[in-house]
Design a protein that fits this description.
Strand content: under 5%
Radius of gyration: 15 Å
Oligomer: single chain
Number of domains: 1
Distance between the termini: 21 Å
Largest sheet: none
Shape: globular
Helix content: 40-55%
Structural class: mainly alpha
Length: 148
Amino acid sequence: MTELIPRLFHSDAEIEHIGEGLLARTLPREEWTHEAHLAATTWLLLKRPDIDIDNQLPDIIRRYNESVGGANSDTEGYHETITRVFLRGVRLFLAEADSREPLYELVNELLMSPMGRRDWPLRYYSPQRLFSVEARRNFIRPDIASIP
């Protein structure tokens, strides 16, 4: 699978803008990219310990999607399994990373790492399983390999 070069960040303020915009539901829809998802997740984990990301992230994303005119259905919007897999990937990355770096450099390293690739979940799931309605609604176990 050909991987697109990720859009990298140039400041911590860019990442804070995404995280705060997600929470306030003011982030323009076109800015809610794959890179923004991972930047927001990293920001939430490192800068917002007041948010229980495991329990609150699904509703944060669902509410944001609805606020920009999107739907959370069987075919679009929030995807539980993909969200959980990438959340695990961000945590794996952060466990090995130098957290003293500026946040934007940390996020850029994440985006360039295996865990930051758009296709990272497909190392563990077949497309049929990952993109199923069941996987969108609920976290399902991988069918190719265990997630580290």
